[in-house]
Each structure stands twice: as structure tokens, then as C-alpha cells.
Amino acid sequence: MCGIVGSIGFKNTKSFIIDGLKDLDYRGYDSAGLAFSFGKRINIYKAVGSVSNLEAIIPELSLNPYMGVGHTRWATHGKPTEINCHPHQSMHGLFTIVCNGVVENYLQLKQQLQSKGFKFVSDTDTEVISNLLEDRYFETRNIMRSIEETMAVLTGSFAVVFIADMDPKHLYFMKRHSPLMIGRGDHFSLVASDASPMVRYTDKYIDLEDDSYGFISNDDVEIFKNGEKIPFQFTKKSPDITVKDLNGYPHYMLKEIEEIERVIRRLMVEYYDKGEFLFDHELMRALTESDHIVFVACGTSYHASLVGARYFDILGKSTSTHIASEFAYYPQFPGRKPFFIFLSQSGETADVIHCMTTVKEHNIPCLVLTNKKGSTLERGCDFSLLLHAGLEVSVASTKAYAAEVALLALLANAYSNRKEVIRDLEECCGVIADIDQNLKGKVHEIAEELKHSKDIYFLGRGFDYDMSLEASLKLKEITYIHSEAVAGGELKHGPIALISQDTPVIVTISDNVTALSMRANIQEVKARGAKVFTFVTEPLANDTDTIVVKNHKRYLSPVVMSSLAFYFAYYVAVLNDRNVDKPRNLAKSVTVE
Ligand code: G6P
Q1: Is the CB–ligand 1 distance for residue 588 below 6 Å?
Q2: Ligand 1, residues 349, 373, 477: which to mutate, most atoms within 8 A of Cβ?
Q3: Which residue, of 65, 86, 112, 423, has the fewest CB within 10 Å?
Q4: How far is the CA of 544 from the centre of ligand 1 (A)?
């Protein structure tokens, strides 16, 4: 969600900026732009839509620009138009800036600047920063002081990179809460929202701290905080980046669904060896000593956390689960010794980061399950467990969900020292392989039958309800068909009013404890004319069931049954000609609150 790249002194500025923006496209965006500085002249190019649209309007360059900044924008303030696209220039053209984040007090600042005569051309909060810098510069005639005074009045989150017209030898930055990294090379410096655009050119990174600012040049980096120059260290560790490659698949989503089995096998290798779990002893001690586990996450990761909470509930541990954006405003610290578990595929979700900051302010230990080594959450939490799912490109998360649930199963079983989890996960892998090879064709047939539906309902109880929530989210994310997940028992408390002739209802039954009640639910919706499709495990199946999945442990059914749901959403999206990997209005990594 908004990506930034910049370079100074680099041998091919245009290709670094364009390729870098493409590397960041997993963050989601709806327009892209860049600025090249040739010393005295700054050229700006902007395009709505893909980075390729931007690339297409840049003319052949006879000179390599000495520095450049690029940006992919995911619209928050103002529509995705060329005018709102970054970079933005201050009114008199002194500052050309790109920004990722949200300036909360931008309206108030805008009014103040307007009353001083500043004119605005866009609806963005970023233009407010460019004019603030300019206003401060007119006052101070000093770029660093202008940055300090600008940062002092901004509230919210931002990562800003800018070119100052009066100083063509430096590229400036300032950062609070939104991620920004610097990369140093031989006579060049780079800056980007994460390391992915830089890995091909350097392995020397600086992870910028909040409230830091400064500049890069071809052979120097200077970082400041509160008016003082601060020391920094390069991290040499190359980040965990896997090459983006469709490998013959038509879409990343399909590729990623079919990687689930491999991801689970990898997790077993990473966290279990020679008859022992490999979780950090300090982590296990902190879990044991805690009297309440609080799960916090967003979207798909939140759905995985519901399953994780059930695992610990079953073990007698008291738990609660929260949507991060809710917890952010109503934080709760239950028990005498709470322990927090955050889940985030990207490790960069702003709402979750906000919660982590609050939890840390209270000195409460926390763990994150994430797919991104070196991400903000991975660095910020006391403990971290990697999902080892490899790069997930498709905006709709699939293999990361499976990895989150499988890793929580490993953790909960390690907590109770139940090693049979390995055998259970092995069995689960076999069942998923069977779905991949033998059952997805049947799912395709259901998708064909339901592709023109206006609404599709998912029904389940217990683990099947948790999974249905994810099934429903996946469907609406990529097909734009309205969908709801309903807990079987809640049906008659409202949602059944929505069932009429031929309403599609997909029922999951994998739990013997709730199977009979689910069969009763099927009768209830059928009596109102619903068209019912069932996903059922072998021992609970009968002749009328639509898809019968091999037997496996019920606690792992969210991992297994979600594969069916992912295929279903995928096929419905493809049959409707949707942009499967980049659904409208959504971003892979939501870095604004
Ligand atoms: C966005 C993505 C979802 C994801 C959610 C949480 O909304 O589109 O696929 O589940 O963010 O992301 P996280 O990286 O924190 O798991």
C-alpha cells in the first residue's frame, strides 16, 4: 500500500526506479509516478493504473538522471487520478516529494497554509507536506531546519523522500511509523519502502528509526533525530526474499494454493527435529507463565487467529481475539500476566503495528507470526516465528493462512508437549494433495454452477465456522460477489431470512461434535429453497454430499477445508474474468490505519 523507491548516483536511475516500483507492486496501488533530477531540471511523469503505463510515457533519456524518486499510490485522500498521483511539488517548485502514510491533521495544516497564500492542486495530504516544507524553508533558508519544523507539526504516519531544488547533490528523507530503508552501494545510495528493490544492488541496509530524517548522497548517509546527528549500523543480512515467478501458472493465487502442502511440510522441518519441538525456550516459558493469551490481527490473519485461540482454549488456557483496528481504540489487558500473539503475513500492517506499540508501552511480552523476516513486527516483538511460506504475491492470502494455522497448531501442541501433531500434519498434507489432484475439478464444477450468483452463504460450526469466515472473505475479495459466513446456530437468529429459492449455501462439516446440528441446518435452509453444497470429511459423509474429503484430525480441518474454499473463490473469479491476483480496491499490505 504505497511504495517508495529512490536513488542517487546510480548508473541507471530509470531502470532502478521502474523495476523497483514493480518489485513493490505487491503492496497494491492504483497509480504510479516518478521524478528525475538532472541537476538544474526536474522532470515528473505520472500515470493512472500500472507501472507499465508509467514506463510507457517516459521518453528515451539521453542523460542518466543523477537522482530519482518513484512512488506507487493507493488512493486514500482523493481519487486515483494523475493530479493526485505522487510526486507532488510545493507551490513554488522548491520541493518534489513522495510520501507513504497518512497525515492525520492535514486539513488543519492545509487551511493554515492556504491562509498564508499557498495554493493546492491535489486532494492529497502529501501536498500539504511539500508546501509545509516550502513555507518553513522561506522562513529558515535551511533544509534540515525546515524538515524538523515540518515534522514537529505533522501527526500520523509518514515515510517521505524528497528532492530539494536548491540542493541537487542530496536526496532527503523523513520517517515516522511508515517503513523506510536505505541501501548503500559503491558510489551510490538507494532508499525504498522495503529491501526488495535494492537486493540486486546491495547487501548493506539501514533500517530507519521512527522520527529520523536526513539525506543520502552518492557516497554518504547522514541521519538525524531531534536535531542531533545519530550513528547508524548497516545490517548485512540479506532479507528473506524469494524470486517472484509464476512458474507456468496462470495466476499467483493458483500457484500459492498449490504450494500449501509444501509450506506445511517446511514448517514441520523448521519447528520439529529429532523428536523435539524447536521453539525458543524463553517463548515457551513466557507462554506457560502467562494467564491469558490475546490474539490480534487483521483480515485473513485474524481468521487464522480465531483457530489459534480455539487451540489454546481447548488446552484450558484463557484467550481472547481482537481485530487490530478495534483493539487499537479499545485496548484490553486481561488477566494478571497477559501474553500477546500478533499474526501478520506481511509484518507491516499498520493497525497491528499500532497495537504492538501499545502493548510494548505496557511492557507486556508479545510474539508475532509473520512471513517477513526483518519486517516491522518481526523486529518489534519480543518473539517471532516465521511462517516460511515463501513470497506470497497474490493479494488474496492463501498459503499464508494455511501456514498461520499450521504453525499455531505446532505451537499449541508444543505447549502441551503433544508430538502427535507431526503425524496429524503429515496426514493433513496427504489430504491436501488429494484435493489438489482429485477434488479441485469438482470444485470447478460448483464454481461454474454458481458463477453468476448474487450472494453465496457459508455455514459451519466451531472450526468449520472459523474456516467459513475465511472462505467467505476470499470469495468476496476476488469475485466481488456478496457473501456471508454464518455460524450454524445463528442461522435462525436472523440470516435465515435471507434464504429463498435457489440461494446458494455452502456447508462445511468436518467435526463429529457438530455434524448432526449442521445436518439440521441443511434441512432448515433447504426447506426455504436453498441450493446446498456440502464439503464433508469421509467419516461424516453420506451419499448426498457434494465433496467428500479424506479423514483428518478435526483441529486441522481449517487447513484442509480452506484449500477447497480457496479453489472455489479462485475458479469463480476466473470464470467471471476478474483480476484474480490484484482485486479492485485491495492491497496486499495495508500500511495505513
Ligand atoms: C490486507 C490483505 C489481506 C490480509 C490483511 C492482513 O487486507 O489484502 O489479504 O489478510 O491485509 O495482512 P497481514 O499482512 O497483516 O496478514
Answers
A1: yes
A2: 349
A3: 423
A4: 36
Q: Is the minimum distance from the CB of 69 to ligand 1 under 6 angstroms?
A: no
Strand, helix or coil at 3?
strand
CA 11 → CA 129, 135, 143, distances in Å?
30, 34, 27
Let me know if 588 is a catalytic residue. Answer: yes
Contacts of 73 (CB under 8 A, 6+ apart): 2, 29, 30, 31, 32, 33, 80, 84, 85, 86
* Residue segments in the chain with a per-residue pLDDT below the cut of 70: 1, 26, 236-245
Q: Is 298 in the pocket of ligand 1 (CB under 6 A)?
A: yes
pLDDT reported for residue 236: 67
The active-site residue out of 14, 46, 110, 588 is: 588
Predicted structure pTM score: 0.75
Ligand 1 near 397 CB (within 6 A) = yes
Q: Which residues contact 285 (CB under 8 A, 6 or more apart)?
A: none
pLDDT at residue 237 in the model = 54
DSSP-assigned states of every residue in 263-320: HHHHHHHHHEETTEE---HHHHHHHHH-SEEEEEE-HHHHHHHHHHHHHHHHTT--EE
H or E element at residue 71: strand 67-73
- Express each pLDDT in 90-132 by its tens digit: 999 999 999 998 899 999 999 999 999 999 999 999 999 999 9
Which ranges constitute the DSSP H helices of 1-125?
13-23, 51-57, 106-115
